[in-house]
Specification:
Layout: H1 2-14, H2 32-46, H3 62-79, H4 85-103, H5 115-122, H6 125-139, H7 145-157, H8 171-188, H9 196-214, H10 224-230, H11 232-249, H12 255-272, E1 276-281, H13 286-297, E2 304-309, E3 324-327, E4 339-341, H14 348-361, H15 377-385, E5 387-392, H16 397-410, H17 418-428, E6 437-438, E7 451-463, E8 466-475, H18 481-495, H19 498-506, H20 510-518
Parallel strand pairs: 1-2, 1-3, 3-4, 5-7, 6-8
Antiparallel strand pairs: 7-8
Domain PTS EIIB type-2: 276-366
Domain PTS EIIA type-2: 381-521
InterPro entries: BglG_antiterminators, PRD, PRD_sf, PTrfase/Anion_transptr, PTS_EIIA_type-2_dom, PTS_EIIB-like_sf, PTS_EIIB_2
């Protein structure tokens, strides 16, 4: 027994696991993912994973083995995927090791991957959630959010894909899903209908989603606000295509579900266009970081995905998928990824340098927007024509919505039941964001004429789970969706910044607010 233990400790040391003076694993200094990967490798080497004689019960509890075996077998049978025996056994062993570690109180740690890497895994979140629920019910073992992310990684690494047998499922949901894809294709101006994986993935999500919502069951997307902030264009377009799906299925889709659907469309879009991924490094504070983010992002193609990263944590990230690093400070370490240094408030010359570099990465400029710099002409027009109610004294979300919808009705800009539709949307998921803004909206078919409104408040009011000082009210008519889609995305880009919200809330005139949003310098 002692000899076996010493052999395991030696194996762990060789794998890079920290061992204490008492000859036990130092879980404080060793990533949990490395510990589990090392155990899996050791088990593969010593219990014959990859052949029919593999005996999991020598290591794991029989109930765990039975559950994992049934789950993996059923999934592959239903999906008709045909992995090799090695892949099947490796997946089983990885899941068993995870459950065993969690049962002993060891959970996966915070992810060190960029968001644009994480959303690829999130395509498998529903499969991971199904597995998690089964483990909780059958084995009395609960996973954390980080455990769920790790399960997504395991599934992705073993070739698992969301899948349903389309021939045996609801024809109505199939037709609705195809129409959903067609509507999104129109808005993004790319043919997404040729992507069979998109159809499979969407259908695999939408069919159980319909059941969940009909039964009043809701789920949370842990990356909801990140997706709304960093993929604002795709999120906005998805939001405005949802009403047709809702009508066809007789449901109301929550914002959490919408962000899950956004993931599928974003991944499909990135297959068609050559998306670039950029890290922004700015250590001088959240406000400056967000200002840098907004200024650079508004001057770049929408196929460039930016992510703000703490300079202290940069070395922890895998940079294989990062095309460019933009930093306001000299980086101590050397990186293979190209680096451009800029001021905290970048000059026009520095922004031009960034755009030239991005163009050299991809000479074929496939974007949502028609030019390198998003055209703000339409945004200026709608802001000047829009309503602004400054420093208002409201005490509740309902009073704000009643006030603004009544204004719209007086001008015959919306249909009579517009307030009811807006309130129904709020019940599904409050539209308040942690930045301090609420962005309520409704089905475009209830809007007669497009008009946006901005309300600033004397005092914060509670909007769902957050406090807000600014309300951006979007009433977009169906016939204007293609024209104004980029304008809406630009508005989201501005209004997800806490510093910009604070600044907007302090303005005393409409021109000051317009200048703040458009970015005009004083």
């Amino acid at each position: 027994m002692r000899k076996d233990y010493e052999e395991i400790i030696k194996y762990c040391r060789l794998a890079g696991i920290r061992i204490t003076s008492n000859h036990v694993i130092d879980t404080q200094k060793t990533p949990e993912e490395l510990i589990q990967r090392t155990f899996v490798n050791y088990f593969e080497k010593n219990i014959g994973v990859g052949n029919e004689k593999c005996q999991y019960h020598f290591v794991f509890d029989q109930a765990m083995v039975q559950f994992v075996d049934d789950f993996v077998k059923n999934f592959y049978q239903q999906s008709k995927q045909q992995p090799t025996n090695y892949i099947v056994h490796s997946l089983k062993l990885s899941l068993l090791t995870l459950i065993g570690r969690v049962k002993h109180g060891y959970h996966s740690q915070t992810n060190k991957n960029p968001l644009f890497v994480e959303i690829k895994k999130m395509e498998l979140y529903m499969v991971a959630l199904d597995f998690s629920n089964g483990v909780k019910d059958e084995l009395n073992c609960s996973f954390t959010i980080n455990d769920l992310y790790f399960i997504c990684s395991l599934f992705m690494g073993h070739g698992v894909r969301p899948f349903v047998n389309l021939a045996t499922h609801s024809q109505q949901i199939m037709e609705t899903t195809k129409q959903f894809i067609q509507d999104m294709s129109t808005l993004v101006e790319k043919d997404l209908g040729q992507d069979s994986q998109l159809l499979q993935s969407l259908f695999a999500h939408i069919e159980p989603m319909v059941y969940r919502l009909q039964m009043g069951i809701t789920i949370k997307n842990p990356l909801k606000e990140d997706i709304i902030r960093q993929y604002s264009t795709m999120y906005t377009l998805t939001t405005y295509c949802i009403p047709k799906l809702e009508k066809a299925m007789g449901i109301r889709v929550t914002d959490d579900e919408i962000t899950f659907l956004t993931i599928h469309f974003q991944l499909a879009f990135e297959k068609i266009v050559n998306t670039k991924h950029v890290f922004l490094i700015c250590p001088t504070g959240l406000g400056t970081s967000q200002l840098l983010f907004q200024r650079i992002r508004h001057s770049s193609p929408s196929t460039v995905v930016y992510e703000v990263i703490d300079v202290q944590k940069l070395q922890d990230y895998n940079l294989d998928s990062v095309d460019l690093i933009i930093s306001t400070v000299k980086l101590e370490n050397e990186y293979q990824t190209p680096i451009i240094y800029v001021r905290p408030l970048p000059t026009k010359e520095e922004i031009a340098l960034i755009n030239r570099h991005l163009l050299t990465l991809n000479q074929q400029d496939n974007t949502f927007l028609p030019s390198i710099a998003p055209d703000k002409t339409i945004l200026k027009k709608y802001l000047k024509d829009g309503w602004m109610f400054l420093n208002q004294d409201f005490d509740s979300r309902e009073s704000v919505l009643s006030f603004i919808t009544e204004k719209y009705k007086e001008e015959q800009l919306v249909k009579d039941n517009f307030l009811e539709v807006v309130l129904q949307r709020e019940k599904l998921g409050a539209t308040g964001l942690s930045s301090g803004v609420a962005i309520p909206h409704a089905n475009p078919k209830y809007v007669v004429k497009t008009k946006i409104s901005i309300i600033t408040l004397k005092n914060k009011i509670t909007w769902g789970d957050v406090d807000v000082r600014v309300v951006l009210f979007l009433a977009i008519a169906e016939e204007d969706m293609i024209q104004v889609k980029n304008m809406i995305a630009l508005l989201y880009d501005v209004f997800v910044s806490p510093e910009r919200i604070k600044s907007i809330a302090s303005k005393e005139t409409r021109n000051e607010i317009i200048n703040e949003i458009i970015g005009k310098r004083k």
